[in-house]
Amino acid sequence: MLTDAKGLPLVVRTTPANVRDEQPAADLLTSIPPIQGLRGRRRPKPEVFQGDRGYGFPWVILAVAARHIKCLLAFRGA
Predict the structure, then answer these.
(1) Sign of the dihedral through C-alpha 75, 69, 42, 15
(2) Contact status, residue 56 vs residue 39, Cβ threshold 8 Å
(3) CA atoms within 13 A on the CB side of 30
(4) CB 74 within 8 A of CB 61
(5) Which residues of 33-69 are buried (b: 16+ CB within 10 A; e: fewer)?
(6) How many other CB atoms are there within 10 angstroms of residue 31's CB atom?
(7) What are phi and psi of 2, to 5 degrees?
(8) What digits encode the pLDDT tens for the residues 37-71?
(9) Beta partners for 11?
(10) Could you report the per-residue pLDDT of 5-45, keeping only the tens digit for each?
(11) What is d(CA 8, CA 19) in angstroms, rounded to the nearest whole number?
(12) Of all helices (H) and strands (E), which one includes residue 9?
């Protein structure tokens, strides 16, 4: 599940029990619908992506950065 800063779900996907949490993270970012703010046009992507250290794999951090989204993930083991 991917939520906004207030906890409102933006994208919900279910996976089998043996799929690790970080594997669908990059795909969830691409499937976010445009976000409507208080004013102006819709934003096609979020400004920031954050999560716990379980998502801090180098390939996830690079996938977030490749989408030009500020990544606030800490590397695993750091």
Answers:
(1) negative
(2) no
(3) 8
(4) no
(5) eeeeeeeeeeeeebeebebeeebbbeebbebbeeeee
(6) 11
(7) -120, 125
(8) 777 777 777 888 888 888 888 998 998 899 888 98
(9) 2
(10) 888 888 888 889 898 888 888 888 888 888 777 777 777 77
(11) 24
(12) strand 9-11
